[in-house]
Write a structure and sequence with these properties.
Strand content of chain B: 25-35%
Distance between the termini of chain B: 44 Å
Mean pLDDT of chain B: 94
CATH topology of the largest domain in chain B: Cyclophilin
Oligomer: heterodimer
Radius of gyration of chain B: 20 Å
Mean pLDDT of chain A: 97
Largest sheet of chain B: 7 strands, mixed
Order of helices and strands of chain A: EEHEEEEEEEEEEHEEEEEEEHEH
Number of domains of chain B: 2
Number of strands of chain A: 20
Shape of chain A: globular
Strand content of chain A: 25-35%
CATH class of the largest domain in chain B: Mainly Beta
Distance between the termini of chain A: 23 Å
Number of helices of chain B: 6
Low-confidence stretches of chain B: none
Shape of chain B: elongated
Structural class of chain A: alpha+beta
CATH superfamily of the largest domain in chain B: Cyclophilin-like
Number of helices of chain A: 4
Low-confidence stretches of chain A: none
Chain lengths: 319, 241
């Protein structure tokens, strides 16, 4: 049967898809791919529906043996991907045959690389998603990261690899993952709980991603932010991208696996189209936060969705 | 419009609208959150993807490609909540069997020494009332319930525990909670329930919903440790028919 086999797992390699958005109202963390841009493009390149489960790997990529003929794509962070030891291009459909080994080399840019497989991985659905949620111990493969020896079945593709090989994303649409990222955000919902001076400091400084960062949240280090009175609020909803500031005044960007409720003030929320740029910052990278309006952010989101609409449309013509 | 004064709108990023009521933890206000959710649902506004009720806020996740934030607010503003009576919601009470055996309730001894209560007095106080579920949240359907009796309210522990067993009943300030997964925790641990309050393989995954009431019923340690599907069905038949 068509499958892939994990030879070496890398640092933290999990199965992710769109996540559990629809279950947040029941108190469930959303999870899902951190860089959904990379996941969606990756899937489209190999002919899959854009939210098909993919492999997400942080900082050190895995070694994976292919036991099927089809195609794969590597998107997101650049960890110098190789097939049978030879460098392969990213953001492109790559033909693979049984016995081929995918591996990674030197770290070039970003934090999270994505491997999409034509046909998609066969993973049971828990709470509407295949996403691994390690803290909850469910999703993906038994709620854990990949380990050596794991074998995952690959589904029958809806489009033959012959129609997809060499399909690639035009260079200018590839996201630019930088060590000094500018990430746009919208003030609120509790920005009025910060002093005016602190709000100025927040948008005119850079914050470093600390080593205490994971799929739940990126802790930032930089100039201290001061609350007008207290950092606490009655617990309310937290969406991934929310920038929460506890009492010690250092912001935390909540990420895909974040708790969905919390009692700290949120100075702002990263806009949808820039969430992948924040997610791709690794410990030590710096983020400059730039405020924009809801209307501007939504225009950018509409442009982004139009882009995906056309990418998907090309695939529909091939089915 | 006068009606809008009952709640205020706050954008939370580019695809969430927070509808916030008064800054108070109260059953009346939370009931309004629940009813507002139902009334928005009944308007079937296209473009709304999810609605997430919390303590005094309703968060509406919407698709900006389908609805404009101003249009969304205008539609919600037409809802009048001034006619709400608390009796409007039928009261649902879920009974949770709890053992208070020492090994499952490591903080009762401390509570007794702080308050001068005996263990039995503490258990009586904790189990004599039912608790309103203000919110289901955190990472896996944790129920935030209240209000506990004033005699048993304490701030959270200064040093959280690294590991708290799934099913542990805890208290802090005026709230009580049930750990739905094994996790770190800073609340005071006062009992344990053998029942699955949250099960990711069930639909719905949580037995509790915000707006429900919860009553803790003491059971013996032996009964808790030997809890079975049979006992569960008997329990549900007795309390939840």
């Amino acid at each position: 049967m068509a499958s892939i086999k994990c030879i070496k797992p890398g640092l933290l390699t999990t199965i992710q898809d769109k996540g559990r958005q629809a279950y947040q109202s029941m108190g469930i963390s959303a999870s899902g791919a951190m860089d959904k841009f990379a996941m969606r493009v990756g899937n489209i390149l190999v002919g899959n529906p854009e939210y098909t489960p993919v492999i997400e790997s942080a900082m050190v990529g895995p070694v994976i043996e292919m036991k099927f003929e089809g195609c794969v794509s590597i998107t997101g962070a650049n960890f110098s991907p190789k097939l049978n030891g030879d460098p392969i291009e990213m953001w492109k459909a790559i033909h693979v045959t049984p016995g081929d080994v995918l591996s990674f080399g030197r770290h070039i840019a970003g934090c999270l690389t994505y491997i999409a497989i034509s046909g998609g991985l066969k993973i049971p659905t828990i709470l509407g998603s295949c996403s691994t949620f390690i803290r909850g111990g469910y999703g993906g493969i038994s709620g854990r990261a990949l380990k050596a020896g794991d074998e995952i079945h690959v589904r029958e593709p809806r489009i033959s690899y012959k129609k997809l090989v060499r399909k690639k994303l035009v260079q200018r649409y590839i996201l630019d993952y930088r060590e000094n990222a500018t990430v746009r955000f919208i003030w609120g919902p509790q920005d009025d709980r910060f002093t005016e001076e602190s709000k100025e400091v927040f948008i005119h400084s850079s914050y470093k991603v600390s080593t205490q960062s994971d799929r739940m949240g990126y802790r930032m280090q930089g100039p201290q932010l001061k609350h007008v009175d207290s950092p606490d609020i009655l617990s309310d909803y937290i969406c991934p991208g929310a920038i929460q500031v506890p009492g010690e005044g250092q912001p935390i960007i909540l990420m895909a696996d974040c708790q969905m409720t919390g009692g700290y003030t949120k100075i702002g929320v990263v806009i949808n189209v820039d969430f992948p740029l924040a997610a791709q910052c690794k410990p030590g990278d710096k983020i400059h936060f730039e405020p924009i309006s809801v209307a501007e952010a939504q225009d950018l989101m509409k442009q982004r969705e139009r882009f995906f609409y056309f990418l998907n449309k090309q695939n529909e013509a091939l089915i | 419009m006068m009606l809008t004064k009952q709640f205020t709108f706050h954008a939370m990023g580019d695809h969430v609208l927070n509808i916030k009521f008064e800054d108070l933890l109260s059953v009346d206000i939370n009931t309004k959150v629940q009813i507002l959710r139902k009334r928005i649902e009944s308007l079937t506004i296209s473009g709304i993807e999810e609605m997430i009720p919390t303590m005094n806020t309703l968060s509406v996740i919407y698709n900006p490609l389908m609805i404009d934030i101003q249009e969304l607010q205008d539609k919600i503003k037409t809802i009048d909540l001034s006619d709400i009576k608390n009796s409007e919601e039928e009261k649902t009470t879920i009974h949770i069997p709890v053992t208070f055996a020492d090994e499952y309730a490591p903080d009762i001894a401390w509570i007794c020494s702080e308050t001068g209560l005996t263990k039995n007095e503490f258990i009586d106080i904790l189990t004599s009332k039912d608790y309103y579920v203000y919110m289901i949240g955190f990472i896996a359907a944790a129920p935030y319930m209240g209000d506990t009796d004033e005699r048993i309210r304490f701030p959270r522990r200064k040093t959280p525990r690294v590991k708290v067993k799934k099913g542990t009943i805890s208290i802090a300030e005026k709230m009580t909670n049930i750990y739905t997964l094994e996790s770190p925790g800073g609340w005071h641990l006062v009992g344990w329930t053998p029942i699955d309050v949250f099960n990711c393989r069930k639909s719905p995954p949580s037995r509790l919903k915000s707006g429900y009431y919860v009553k803790y019923d003491p059971i013996s340690k032996e009964m808790a440790e030997n809890w079975s599907e049979n006992l569960q069905s008997e329990w549900d038949e007795k309390w939840h028919q």
